[in-house]
Structure formats: C-alpha cells, structure tokens
Amino acid sequence: MNSAIPPSKPARIAIIGGGPAGLFAAEQLAGAGHAVEVFDRMPSLGRKFLMAGRGGLNLTHAEPLEFFLKRYQPVAPVVEKAIRAFPPEALRAWADGLGQETFAGTSGRVFPKAMKASPLLRAWLGRLNELGVMVHLRHTFEGWSADGGLLFSTPAGEAVHTADAVVLALGGASWPRLGSDGGWAGWLGTETPVTPLRATNAGVLIAWSDILRERHAGTPLKRIAIRIGERTERGEAIITQTGLEGGVIYALSRDIRAALDRDGYADITLNLRPDTHPDEIVQRLGKTNRKESFSSRLRKAAGIQPNAVALVHEVTMRNGKGPPKDDYAAMARLVTGIRLRVTGIAGLDRAISTAGGVAFEGLSEDFMLKSRPGVFVAGEMLDWEAPTGGYLLQACFSTGMAAAEGVKRYLARVIPDRA
After folding, report:
1. How confident is the model over 23-81, as pLDDT tens digits?
2. Measuring CA to CA, which residue among 265, 280, 269, 133 is closest to residue 205?
3. Which numeric CATH code is attached to 12-199+351-418?
4. Cα–Cα distance between 363 and 384 in angstroms, integer?
5. Which terminal Cβ of the chain has fewer Cβ within 10 Å, N or C?
6. Where are the domains of the chain?
C-alpha cells in the first residue's frame, strides 16, 4: 500500500479531520516517508469512529463486490474505482495487520472479533505515532488565509500552517457533537460545487398516538418488511417517540427522502409477517377462542408481539371504527400491509450519516479540488450515500486511500524530489 522508496526530501502534508478517511490517508502518506500532520477540532481523534463501534464496529461487508458496489448512491465512477482499488478484503487484511482479526456474521457484516472500536483505534494511533505523524487537537479549520496558508482557530488563538498538499476529511454533518458539523459546506461551497447536506440513515417521523408512544416507544419490530413504491426492504425497526428508526428504515432513506421532496409526505407499507400468507392468518384466526380479547387472538394467530398488535389498533382507530374483529381477511391484510404516513426525517443530530457533499464535478479523478490544486477530499465530505452494514466505513477508508494516492501523484508532478 505504501511507497517502497521514501522521497529524498519529505513533503509536508496536512490531513484535516481525524476520522477514518483522514487517519487512513495519513497512514498511507506517512508510510511513504512524508511529514504528515493531522489537525482535528476535537480533544481526541476518532470520536465518531468510536461511536460507530459502540454496538459492534461494522467495518465492511462480505458480500460479492459487484453487489457491494450497488449499495452506493450515486455510484460515482471515482468512488467505484476507489473501492475496487481498496476493497473489503483489503480492509480486513489491514485490520488483521493491527492485531484486530475480523469475522463475518451470518448477515455478511464484518466486525473485529473484539466487537469494539477502541482496541482497533488504539492500535491504529500507535502505528501512526511510530510513523511520526504529528497530531494537533482542538484545531478548527476555518479555510485559507490571504496568502494561502491553512487557517485554524485554537484555544490559544488563530494559527496558520503551511503544507505542500492537503487532504480534507472533515466528515458530513451527522452527530455534530462528535466533531463533524458540516460547517465547511458554507465556505467551501463558494469556490466548488457542494450538494446540500441532508440526513440519511436516519429515523422517520410518524404521528403516533399518545398511547402508542407511552406503551411501545423503544420496542423493536423484528423480521418485518417495509415497502415504498416498488421497493421493499426487510429487517428490523424500532418504534420511537417520533416514528420509526432502524436498519430497514435506513435502507429506504433515499426513496423516503425523494417522496418527501416530491409530495411533502411518504406513504410506506409495513408487513409484520412477510413470510406468512394472509390466508394462513385467516385460518388461524378462525381457530382462536372468540371469548379472548382481540389483541390476544391476533397476537396468537399472526404470531406477532404486543407492539405490532398496537400498530394494528393504531391505524384502525384513526378511522374511528377500530379493528375489524369479525372480518378475518381484513385483519390479515392489516397484519401484512399497514399503511403509515411519514411526515419527515429525523434531524442530523441523530442521523447515522449524511447525504450530499462535495460534488464530483468539482474534483479531478484523483479526488483533488479543481478550484484549489493540491487540496484533496475524502470520506463523508463527498457526495455519496450508502446504507448501514459496513458500506459507510468502507467508502471512508477507500476514498482515504484514493486521496493519498492522488497526493503522491500530485507531488510527483509539482515537486518530483518530494514524491
């Protein structure tokens, strides 16, 4: 991955952003013999990386590469090229090299065996230290000074640094308290095209009744399917105070957002038992004890949990009639096709990732800004999106590698003795 022959005179390279994309670019360039400095606005590096690993660090996915690449939208040629150059197998080998062996779960998601981000991050930071990477914390990048220097605000006041090349890896705008608030889009957008930043892999807003919120917020809906338009995804969701969130919702983020933009709302259809034919539910209902409550009969016949029964009540009570207790076919149709209206998407403060970012028409094939030679962009700053499942981190690592390789080629052109 790294250049075998160090440059005769190391170039000074600034990496702005201490997340996966920035740190990986720093590792590649420091390993090639360059003098690398990492700048981050937070008191420590990799904060969002640690958050991603809180429930098990999903690094990448083990599905075939051709299927893997279809998860990215828009699937820009440069992103596809970057992932092909540094695919999931390469990311797993890198983690193994840090002593963090990985495994693929039954879903195909790949995790470190430690199931945490902290051991991997510690080993990674140790490697960067051995490579001589300098770290500047609490440095917020404000853009460029009048003479082209890198301008930072710090607790000690304004600071200006210079570099032969720069990699911007400032992240998107999700979970801003962890360091990436998308503030760069304002000043960078004045000189290069930036698609507006929006929440993706985020929960959706649905107007629940007080009873549903009080009794079932925080409970999971397992092995369900959700359809919007012609697209259906399977997985799990969680009922929240304000709607739904979870993997099956995140997978439909782009479609839901498009419907909201077009119509102001998005109608989704929730199937609580996608593996059971409605006729089978009808037959089971016919065998239940009519003296039992509706909820008990439906729960047993359909094999669903109390929160799912509550959803059936929720949608039928809106028309003032309540559930069709004696119409078994109608009840079965409800179980397999609850229509819910989404009125919005949860905010960036809780979104897992961000859609939008630096548009690819503003970049060279090496991820360099056309408006500012020597400045490269990587990670979630770029205008791509993908569902959860390892796709987000993989693209951050792959574009971090691609940006580092772009820096090397740039240096070979402009200052050959430092390439």
Report:
1. 999 999 999 999 999 999 999 999 999 988 777 899 999 999 999 999 997 778 999 99
2. 265
3. 3.50.50.60
4. 13
5. N
6. 12-199+351-418, 204-345
